[in-house]
Amino acid sequence: MRISAAFRRWQEVERMRGERNIVANKMKGRLDPSVRQALVEEGKNLKEALAALEEDLVVLTDKLQLEAQCIPNITHPDVPTGGEENSVVRHMVGNPPEFKFTAKDHIQLGKELDLFDFDSAAEVSGAKFYYLKNEAVLLEMALINWAISEVSRRGFTPLITPEIVRSSVVEKCGFQPRGDNTQVYSIEDSNQCLIGTAEIPVGGIHMDSIIPDSSLPLKYVAYSHCFRTEAGAAGSATRGLYRVHQFSKVEMFVFCRPNESNLYHEELVKIEEDLFASLGLHFKTLDMATSDLGAPAYRKFDVEAWMPGLERYGEISSASNCTDYQSRRLGIRYRPAPSDPSMAAPKKGKGGASSPTQFVHTLNATACAVPRMIICLLENFQQEDGSVIIPEKLRPFMGGLSTITPKLKG
């Protein structure tokens, strides 16, 4: 109904613009004063009526845009149908650690090793906030630098992004910044939001632009803080660092040609698997079922790592192919190179004989969500004496520190 209403209003606007042009053309040349005056009055009336119609059209178009943004992306034909329980395991890497003692969860380990302070953070900021202390600070910095270093050498450009963006950009990326169950923090009396992932500002970096074919693919690895309301999140499974309002994350993002997005999706999940395997973690990669896909995702692979203290697998990353869902909203195109090399290159700013523009495909994947990784490292590499072994890959980024040991009590 709203589509037909907007179309009818657009037709009215176009008809009235045509009438206004006719009146303007009639006023050219020499006219009897009385005829000119009548045309002036008619033109004035048309202008006022047109302004009202155009205002209505803007309102209808905005409402239609909001409704259209609620429509999710189509899904890959191989995506499992149904709820999360229907997701399919693609890979299983490593084995769960076997302890000869009762494994502790990260909350107990953090307390004994003096790594976190949840109580003070709750007093200062509220529930689901935290202070990192001592070696946990070094561990966060090490994870960030390790992830950026590893991904950068695979051809990704490092970025540090803005952490406040316009609400319109959040919407165009496929997230809902308003509503009762939103995961987005909005800034009061502004059109801005805090980001829930670097995917949003990286997705917007080429907004409303045409990318040269020769520049594709564009690959970024971005560091940012992330802010999420975690509306509706509760229960023992969300305690400690597992589900928090603010955290650091390293995110990969790719802009590519449409026929290459499946290929880069596989590349992104392979990078994730290589990163986590290099730390010695036990994890599984899942092809997520339809009901677990967010609105932008055409297909999504999640990585879930074993967390001994929680006695379950927990999601530590995901990799999504969003096809042209985001690029259509963000206005990101590319101009394919001419298939015939004899075609003359067009002049700057001119279409010439070049191919018409097409929307790029966008993909995103988590290289390192710091709190979840800290959980994995503490729980999987804990020792009977209460210490935690640092994986070798991270030691150069921690000044050579190999073990986190309990503090001596004075």
From TrEMBL:
Record-listed ATP binding positions: R228, T229, E230, V244, H245, Q246, F247, E315, I316, S317, S318
NCBIfam families reported for this sequence: serS (TIGR00414)
The protein, known as: serine--tRNA ligase
Annotated site residue numbers, Important for serine binding: T366
Sequence segments annotated as region (Disordered): 334-356
Keywords on record: Aminoacyl-tRNA synthetase, ATP-binding, Coiled coil, Ligase, Nucleotide-binding, Protein biosynthesis
Residue ranges of every copy of the Aminoacyl-transfer RNA synthetases class-II family profile domain listed in the record: 105-391
PROSITE patterns per UniProt: AA_TRNA_LIGASE_II
EC number of this enzyme: 6.1.1.11
Entry coiled-coil feature ranges: 36-63
Database matches in InterPro entries: aa-tRNA-synt_IIb, aa-tRNA-synth_II, aa-tRNA-synth_II/BPL/LPL, Ser-tRNA-ligase_type_1, Ser-tRNA-synth_1_N, SerRS_core, tRNA-bd_arm
